């Protein structure tokens, strides 16, 4: 299926590995010119090289609003504009209500909420002026089903989802869609490290019987950025192999 994305320009945050890189790879395969960022220069440059000669590597830390804004601005300069924004970031430290101090919340909110707001503030106005744009946020299944010992992530990502839904309603008439994907467990380097390379335990609680393939996630992300998905906006979609089992 031709997704109608040839020649579009995308900024994909935190894409030196994992689901961000898989999303960038799927977009690049559809003819999208991609700019990606990461904090480690060598790693992000290697990731960009794997995407093809047109990919742009940007060293940036989207964990702060200034870093997030700067990434989008540099992507706009490098690509001549950004038609597709994929927001993404790592997670804050683990902890419970009891173990997490009040002073830990601002940094977590910057990382998983304010970075999303900042990137959208930089990218969305030009999209509205052009009458076409896609915003896709990679969040977490914890938005629907809070994960134990991750109170900071649960809190910040839920806030980002509320912001994205509101933004979607405000820009829907301007040809800009805003959606989020809520990944469950996928076979990323981080998950392999956490499980000592053996993902069988991680797969045990997933109805499909395995953890997700990052390339499958990337393909679905690319579809939501496509012309075919122009009537989908304001959606927050689990991509978790059926692990989230509630009706709503």
UniProtKB/TrEMBL annotation:
Q: Which UniProt keywords apply?
A: Oxidoreductase
Q: What Pfam families does its record include?
A: adh_short_C2
Q: Which InterPro entries match?
A: NAD(P)-bd_dom_sf (IPR036291), SDR (IPR050259), SDR_fam (IPR002347)
Highest taxon, organism lineage: Bacteria
Named from the GO MF annotations, one term is: oxidoreductase activity
Q: Which family does it belong to?
A: Belongs to the short-chain dehydrogenases/reductases (SDR) family.
Q: What is this protein called?
A: 3-oxoacyl-[acyl-carrier protein] reductase
> What is the native source organism of this protein?
Thermomonospora echinospora
